Amino acid sequence: MEPYFNILESKGRLNKLGSKVVKLISKYSKKKLSKMSVLDIGCGNGFYEFALAPYFETIYGIDPSEKMLHNARKTNNIFEYKNIRFYSGSAENNPFVRKFDLILFSYSLHYTNDPLMSLERISKNIKDGGLLLILEPTKTFLPGGKYDKRGSDFDKEIYKKKLERLKETRKIVNKFIKTHNLLDKVYDNRIYSVLIRY
Q: pLDDT above 90 covers what percent of the chain?
């Protein structure tokens, strides 16, 4: 799988996203961000790691794709963040036994085989008082590719299946949050975002 886009050409978007997530986490965190450890499930090419690295103490990204991890590590050779590490893994195959202050599903929960089981498994790695942030796309996707209606590679059937999978995942998350401490929720044409405290 190729990177979704060139991160080095997206520094403005990177900064904007980083400050947006930081603002949300700062509002609800009981700890200083500079003392917090983060685990990103399904980190892909490391976009969220690079967006959040200036603010958090440590960020670990896991992804099942060695190609994506290679691209993430290669990009970090340019950024040179010392607080980021990338590992092979997934929600179903998490290499960590330690606990984190924040666990993030960055547009990745809908890719898991069983989103509910993934949430339950990964919850064991969240510290008491820690946070779980779930971010999922809704109807609008990055320009280009098979999910962009304006792009030459757009595939109507694949897009339809993607929307169905995202809808199923939202249902599961909505059920999951009923038994958890929901702090924040956003749902619009671009994003479905849920923040939970443990």
A: 78
Residue 46 makes CB contacts below 8 A (sequence gap 6+) with 7, 61, 71, 72, 73, 75, 76, 84, 86
Angle at 160 between CA 16 and CA 45, to 5 degrees: 35
pLDDT of residue 156: 87
**pTM as predicted:** 0.91
| H or E stretch covering 175 | helix 156-177
Q: CB-based contacts of 88: which residues, under 8 Å, 6+ apart?
A: 62, 63, 64, 66, 69, 95
What would the mean pLDDT of 120-140 be, rounded to a whole number?
Answer: 94
Q: The domain that contains 96 carries what CATH number?
A: 3.40.50.150
Q: Please indicate, yes or no, if residue 2 is contained in any of the structural domains.
A: no
Q: Quick count: other Cβ atoms within 10 Å of Cβ 32? A: 11
The pLDDT of residue 5 is above 70: no
Other CB atoms within 10 A of residue 154 CB? 15
Q: How many structural domains does the chain have?
A: 1
